[in-house]
Design a protein that fits this description.
Blueprint: H1 2-12, H2 22-52, E1 61-63, H3 65-83, E2 86-91, E3 98-100, H4 102-118, E4 125-132, E5 138-144, H5 167-171, H6 178-188
Length: 199
């Protein structure tokens, strides 16, 4: 995968001179995007396998959660624009630095935001918010105007490889590992994940 992603990026950027046919540049871009998608699936599978085996280790360090989330939101702005979804990020309070695993903290934000965008139809909204609740706990909240989840499916979607079957989920293929991985990561950090939804 490193070779596929690396060399296709070189070709699509035409680093060693122009490529004869413009179509080949597009194809190289497609190869790179597919390779990156496959790599992310493999990483999710490895992480969930490690977590199931109790081998997922935290590599904690001080992080600025606001800056980390700003980077993640920048990553999704273009995607949201392409989907016709309005993505908003708001920081409600004065947020201190955290001791957390930066890669896994980012994974939580990526998985939740990605899910919200994936299942929100055009002209919908996704709101990402960071702040404290009344108990003084730090809360990362992701809300959307998406298709919603039936009450009977609420627990199932936290099981690995489960995807709720409906027309929209079938058109948005994934591994069904995003939310189970978020739950594992939050548990490792001494946190929780809560879901509220209506169809």
């Amino acid at each position: 995968l490193n070779a596929i992603i690396g060399f296709s990026e070189i070709i699509s950027n035409q680093m060693f001179g122009p490529v004869g046919q413009a179509k080949y540049v597009d194809y190289a871009g497609d190869i790179r995007a597919s390779g990156a998608h496959l790599l992310s699936i493999i990483n999710d599978i490895l992480d969930i396998s490690k977590a199931e085996a109790g081998k997922l280790q935290l590599e904690e360090e001080p992080i600025d959660p606001v800056e980390a989330l700003n980077r993640t939101m920048r990553m999704f702005r273009q995607r949201a624009s392409e989907l016709g979804v309005d993505l908003t990020f708001r920081v409600r309070d004065d947020i201190p630095w955290l001791i957390a695993d930066p890669r896994l903290f980012n994974q939580v934000a990526i998985n939740l935001t990605s899910n919200a965008l994936k299942f929100t139809p055009e002209n919908g909204n996704v709101w990402v918010e960071l702040g404290f609740n009344s108990a003084g706990d730090l809360v990362l909240s992701v809300k959307d105007t998406g298709i919603g989840i039936k009450a009977s499916d609420m627990q199932r979607i936290f099981e690995p490889f489960v995807q709720v079957e409906d027309a929209m989920s079938r058109t948005h293929q994934g591994t069904g590992l995003g939310l189970p991985l978020v739950r594992k990561i939050m548990n490792l950090h001494g946190g929780t994940i809560e879901l509220e939804s209506t169809v």
